[in-house]
Amino acid sequence: MKTGVRLVDGARELILHPSRHILPQSLQVSSPAIRDVSESRVDDDGERDTTLLFGSRAVSLDVVVLKDEIFECEQVIDQMKSFLHPRSRPYLYVTDTGWAQERRIRLRVDQWSEPYTGYVASQAREVQLQWRAPDGVWEAAELTTLPEISADVPTTVGLTFPITFPITWDATTSTGASEVSNLGSVPSHFIARLYGPCSGPRLINETTGEQIVFTEALTLGAGEYVEIDTRDRTAYLLSMSTASRLNYLDFATTSWWRIEPGDQLIRYAPLSAAGGAVAAIEYRSTWL
Asked: Could you tell me which residue ranges the Siphovirus-type tail component C-terminal domain spans (predicted)?
């Protein structure tokens, strides 16, 4: 059962439920459009189907707007319309007794209807709102911020002998990986800040084997970081859009991986690093 519905656009918020003036009648969120990639087999029955992705989805909300001693129906409708400009990308937040946490979905207005039918409509107006959800998914309203992941730091260890051997031991690495949980049902994009001092920063999903790799030519000093956004596929020094570091990516070994549903291990393993190098990651669990 839906226990809370609200629209949020930056600092602006409109409570749709529970509300004295707005009574939601139905909320419909369609399945995302499937981005079909297939072709008929020339010499056999069936098709070759390599479909992987989905697109946007339709969201519609039917409400009844009520007049009271303070607000006319039109005043309430005007408040709703302030979230319906095509340039706006408000979020619809919903709480449900069947969900462990509040979820949200990003919207872009499609169309709306507010028919007027005489005196009755001056007391109660039926309004239908329709949007497209460009991302196609629900995501957790609360942002998950992981504890900082310390980088693997090469350190020389071993024993000292009074004689010289014709062999050497490579430096071992202080290793550690952090467990990450996506509580949703589909992969989640994330933002990661990879801090120095280090060179050749690498962020590795140990569970899937995928990694985001920068070449050794990218060197970060103490306090410097490169910010990765897997949805937008950007890499900015100190979060500055004018300081892209995509040219340092090792595209041959990099995949813009996402956090898969369930648990996985993530490691920050620069090619070389000193103490204090860490990775900070934030994301939202994601559902269809």
From this structure: 192-287
Tell me the domains of the chain and their CATH numbers: 2-138 (2.40.30.200), 144-287 (2.60.120.860)
Give dist(CA 140, CA 186) in Å, integer: 12
Sequence-distant (6+) residues with CB within 8 A of 249 are 212, 213, 214, 215, 235
Residue-wise pLDDT for 227-242, tens only, equals: 999 999 999 999 999 9
pTM, two decimal places = 0.87
Token pair for 180: 């990450």
Asked if residue 6 lies in contact with residue 16, where contact means CB atoms within 8 angstroms, the answer is yes
pLDDT higher than threshold 50 for residue 257: yes
- Integer Cα distance of 197 and 225 in angstroms: 9
Q: Under 8 Å CB-to-CB from 209, ≥6 apart: which residues?
A: none
Residue appearing with tokens 């590795």: 204
